[in-house]
């Protein structure tokens, strides 16, 4: 597998890697994401559930890293892979309906 921190992954590959990281690696939550989660009454478990069951979009290259939007009908998160064993939740929000 290409280095996920340097090369974009297709959505199914990003999901597979995220699943592996949730089970055996490290999931970091950025300070910004923590602030946004409090605003929208989201828990860490919401982010972990989204990593497992959300819909992955193709990545965007933002601020020097590939970022993946993962969503359900009610919640959205953005993540970046630091390595094959670590990812960071960049931000999170509840979708307004």
Pairing-aware structural class of the strands and helices?
alpha+beta
> How many helices?
3
What's the total count of β strands? 6
Q: Averaging pLDDT over every residue, what do you get?
A: 94
Uncertain stretches: none
- Main beta sheet: 6 strands, mixed
- Integer-rounded radius of gyration: 12 Å
Reading the helices and strands in chain order gives HEHHEEEEE
End-to-end gap: 38 Å
Envelope shape: globular
Oligomeric state of the chains in view: single chain
- Beta-strand percent range: 25-35%
Report helical residue fraction: 25-40%
Description:
With 97 residues, the chain is α+β, with helices and mostly antiparallel strands. Helix content is 34%, strand content 33%. The chain has 3 helices and 6 strands, in the order αβααβββββ. The mean pLDDT is 94.
Summarize the structure.
By secondary structure, the protein is α+β, with helices and mostly antiparallel strands. Helices cover 34% and strands 33% of the residues.
What is the topology?
Elements: H1 11-24, E1 26-29, H2 31-39, H3 44-53, E2 55-56, E3 60-62, E4 65-71, E5 75-81, E6 86-94
Parallel strand pairs: 1-6
Antiparallel strand pairs: 2-4, 3-4, 4-5, 5-6
Can you tag this structure with a few keywords?
alpha+beta, globular, 3 helices, 97 residues, 34% helix
